[in-house]
Amino acid sequence: MAEMPDTSDVARNMRLKAFKDWNAAQAHRRHRARVAAAAAAVVVLFGLLAGCTGDRPDFITPGAGPVPEGTDARTVLEAFRGRGMMNHLKALQRVADENGGNRASGTSGYENSARYIEEQLRAAGYSPVRQTFSYQRDDETLESFNILADTEGSADYTIVVGGHLDSVRRGPGINDNGSGVAAVLETARWMKESGIKPANRVRFAFWAAEENDFDGSRHYVQELSKTEIRRTAAYLNVDMAASPNGVRSFHDGDGSDFGDAGPGGSEEIEDVFSRYFRENSLPAESTVFDGGSDYGPFVKVGIPSGGLFSGDVERKTNAQAQAYGGEAGEDLDSCYHKACDTIKNINPELLEDMSGALAFATVSFAMAQQG
Question: Of 115, 209, 212, 254, whose Cβ has the fewest other Cβ atoms within 10 Å?
Fold first, then answer.
């Protein structure tokens, strides 16, 4: 009997071919977009925002400054293989289990989630602070708080890296947005462990009440002075990074794919995320930049923004199934905003890929040359 082909090799070759086709199409599309957007981008980067925020300093250039050893795209991804993101999600699941099944803002589940984050940050060498605020929900005034933790570095070019800590009341929110929280927290821990000394200050933020109406991030932005807005060089957001049938996507900062561009400098953020995935030979795509997460308040005041998203109720296309695996025609996350958004609703490998992307982008801007 003739030897049967190894089905794993066949599948691997099919995925490799799909990736090459996908990557070629992405590269062609981005080349056309960059040519079309180049002139406009230069104008925007150096003052188009002056009407709403005053004269913004020259945007920092990622990759132009000294890059610490071990922070290239491939090394960062390897570093995040097996890091502690899943441990953080298990901890948040325990919190939900012990507090009525959710971690919604204003509840004991949120408070205990916050205590866990603060303990982890302190153990890593940070000094987290709570930024308290009140907000309205169903004609009721509620109190909550964001958690903020800063690195060293120049506050003149502050990089804010954030994700929302609260869940919906219907479930524990382990993908939405425990996965984003885990990525932000582990990025902060990795930077300390790696001995990285940022040239530009990084502020790690864990937002409250996103599931109400972005109340936590909105409060943060509203409390910024005009000078602080000008000094915020970039906002990096991560909201869902481990969807079980998910994709690797980053926001369309230049508007070339979906028409809604971010403020000047957002295209730089998109480029950094794109480079990380490309250099790691990981299929990835852009996603709509519609203000549907905590980057919205930053965009409104002209702060360059971008971020990561692995998908919610959209159905996976055939092309996406070929590029990423998973099930075509099924929701990217069928447990979105449901009680089943538990630790079982997580794609660990995707979480590693996306957490590495956040860490790579964070250190790229943290070490970037000013001007």
Answer: 115
Beta-carbon count within 10 A of 213 CB:
12
Which of 62, 367, 54 is CA-nearest to residue 224? 54
Q: Beta strands 154-164 and 232-238: pairing type? A: parallel
What is the per-residue pLDDT for 20? 47
Closest CA to 178 of 77, 91, 308: 91
Task: For 338, list phi and psi in degrees, rounded to 5.
Answer: -125, 170
Closest of 68, 67, 46 to residue 268, by C-alpha: 46
Q: Is 209 helix (H, G, I), strand (E, B) or coil?
A: coil
Q: How far is CA 317 from the centre of its chain?
A: 23
Dig out the tokens for 239 from the structure: 């909201």
Q: What is the pLDDT of residues 209-252, one digit of tens each?
A: 999 999 999 999 999 999 999 999 999 999 999 999 999 999 99
Give the integer Cα–Cα distance in Å for 339 and 352. 24
- pTM, entire model: 0.85
Whole-number pLDDT of residue 70: 79
Instruction: Tell me the C-alpha distance between 293 and 305, whole Å.
Output: 11
| CA–CA separation, 348 and 242 (whole Å) | 7
pLDDT at 119 over 90: yes
pLDDT at 12: 45
Give the residue from 127, 308, 152 showing the smallest Cα distance to 235: 308
* Distance between CA atoms of residues 188 and 118, nearest Å: 12
- Six-digit token string for 54: 């005053």
Could you report how far apart the first and last alpha carbons of the chain are, in Å?
68
Question: Nearest 5 degrees, angle CA 245-CA 249-CA 254?
Answer: 155
- 251 vs 261: CA distance, rounded Å: 9
62-109 pLDDT tens trace: 765 566 777 999 999 999 999 999 999 999 999 999 999 999 999 999
Cis peptide before 177 (omega within 30 of 0): yes
As annotated, the active-site residues are 210
